[in-house]
């Protein structure tokens, strides 16, 4: 199930427990969430480019890791919102 947190639509914790990854965007902010079933690593960047190009061009702006738990999932969503707010007010 996908939940809306502010303007982010992110899959439920169960999606990440299965070790899946997810990519998305909100306006000019892009993000990729990679899970190994125990931890979620979230990278963010700006611009209309894919994650591979962002990595090649050193455009990754943040990388954070969260546990695959309900608390970690909530913290990840809050961090994405914080990063988005900082990008739009800068």
How many H/I helical runs? 3
Which geometry do the CA atoms define? globular
- From the structure provided, what is the oligomeric state, counting identical versus distinct chains? single chain
Order of helices and strands: EEHEEEHEH
**Rg on CA atoms, Å:** 12 Å
Structural class by secondary-structure content: alpha+beta
Q: Please, how many domains?
A: 1
Mean pLDDT: 91
Report the sheet with the most strands, covering strand number, pairing sense and barrel closure.
4 strands, antiparallel
Low-pLDDT runs of 5+ residues are: none
Our measurement of the CA-to-CA distance between the termini, rounded to an integer number of angstroms, reads 33 Å
Written account of the structure:
The protein has 90 residues and is an alpha+beta fold. The chain has one domain (2-25, 35-89). The protein has helices spanning 13-17, 51-56, 70-89, and strands at residues 2-5, 8-11, 21-26, 29-35, 39-46, 62-67. The strands form 2 sheets. The chain has a 4-stranded antiparallel β-sheet with strand order 3-4-5-6. Strands 1-2 form a two-stranded antiparallel sheet. β3 and β4 (29-35) form a beta hairpin. It is globular. The model has no long low-confidence stretch (mean pLDDT 91).
